[in-house]
Amino acid sequence: HEPTMVSTSIVWVATLAGMPSNENTVTVAPLHTPASGTVLHSNVLARRDVTGAIMDAHDGSYRMFNGLWHYHAMGYGKCIENGKDAGGQCGSRTNNTINLWTSPDLRTWTFVADVLPVNSRPDCVYYRSHVVYNAQNRDYVLWANAKSCPSACPGGASGCYLVFTAKSPAGPFALVGPARTRYTAEGAVGDYSLFIDDDPNATAYCIHKRTGQAPQPNGHRMLIEKLDPDYLHSTNETHGIFGNPFVEAPVMFKRQGVYYALFGKCCAFCASGSGVGVYTATSPLGPYTYQLNVGCPTEPVGGCGCGGAPWTPDPNKSCPIMPSVTKAQQNFVIEVPV
User: Fold this and answer.
1) What is the pLDDT of residues 190-207, one digit of tens each?
2) 48-75 burial, b for 16+ CB within 10 Å, e for fewer?
3) 97 and 115 in contact (C-beta within 8 Å)?
4) Given the DSSP bridges, would you call strands 277-281 and 258-265 parallel, antiparallel or unpaired?
5) Which of 185, 270, 195, 190 is nearest to 227 (CA)?
6) What pLDDT, on the 0 to 100 scale, is given for residue 315?
7) Distance from C-alpha of 18 to C-alpha of 91, rounded to nearest angstrom
8) Residue 217: its pLDDT value, please?
9) What is the C-alpha to C-alpha distance for residues 224 and 208, in angstroms, rounded to an integer?
């Protein structure tokens, strides 16, 4: 079925004042949904579905289709992470799942399915599943960051974005192939997110980073590319690399005519979390202007960040060690119907 098209407002995810520091709960309130009110999402307490089971949900994105929230996210199964360092052994396996939960109100979640079973996809390590709806051809389009599968990526690259389509957000999804984006063959691509603008053409964009294998000083840097009308490939239109170095975990949205890009320092699978740098522009491709970091207790200076291992853009200088406010590494911004 074609999703109902609705206007949206942006819910900013921020720490909830007055919560104990060891809980560090975040709020996505108020929600203008049929059951309005405050919904609390904790970064340190496990979320549970309607059966009481812990939701095996990591990375991914929240989107509303036909009046129902859909959360597509990576599943790590019963793998036990070390919980301290950026080891990522649970996120770096080829048998991880892309799971779907649905909810009427962002409170109660029901597990639906693994929408991309292992036997229906190339043998890769998958990260960050994002599903968007293309109203022009009525396809649900799934992008996944695929690593360690040069046979599936252009030119034998170590990683790329693999694209799948389906007629339902629950699948079954069929492989289209690797998305054509910039820099796939120059050290591969990394963390990404998809954004659909509210213009008459519902233009889509991909915000993503180059990996650390990219030629320096372009490793771990961010850019935004415009996608084709089918949301399958880049049109190669971009304003180029922007923002601080050594970053990942991006998200992009629009609020009151202003485009926002959020991302923070690299902190792969780390338990400490990272910061959230905020950039704004009047055009989706930019140029973007840095505003502030809402994920650090004080504003970082000199290209520094917070959370994770201390890192400095200048080897002759050190960055102060600051904790992450949210203790989260991916940035979520949820577009809520009004």
Assistant:
1) 899 999 999 999 999 999
2) ebeeeeebbbbbbbbbbbeeebbbbbbb
3) no
4) antiparallel
5) 195
6) 62
7) 33
8) 78
9) 6
